[in-house]
Target: Asp/Glu racemase
Amino acid sequence: MALTIACLHTGASNAALFDAAAAALPGGALRLTHECRPEWLRTPDAALLEEVAALLRAMAQGADAVLLTCSTIGEAVERAQDAPRPVLRADAALAAAAARSGGEVTVLYAAPSTRASTWKLFSEAAAQTGADVGLYGVPGAWALFQEGKFEEYHAAIAQAARGRRGRVALAQASMAPAAALLPEAPPLTVPGTAVMAAARAALQHRKMG
Model:
């Protein structure tokens, strides 16, 4: 029986990235649905986080697991842990995957508003494994994204990733296409790691239920 993963985005372009990640998994038994709220892409206050959490709970009613793909409002996931199905933060799945084997991890982010939450996630993941995490912004990248210059955006990210030591992780879902520009050393991306994590969580919940 196919699993349904419901995704909540703030950028409509992210839906295709997660669909591609799901299609790349073996078996073809994963179905993604998408909800997009671009008006929520802003520095969150408590009221916004609760509004996001309420939608996450509602989405969990009709899915096997829910993924919040936006780093900026990622803290809402903590408020939605009373949902009837697993609710996951996509960038937290990336942090866990990047730090799992310890060693050196380089994390790149584009949106300045995500810096603090990204550092918190990766620091917590690294504390479990002893990984050595370095966090770096990609200068000018977010302005390119906001202007709709996506090719230039991804090229800037790829340039920033080249030559980095250890495992490289691209901290925001929108950064994922830059991985295709780095075939010699593909970085970890949010869609790839998050879809796998959501599928595992959904299967575990189904077995327990």
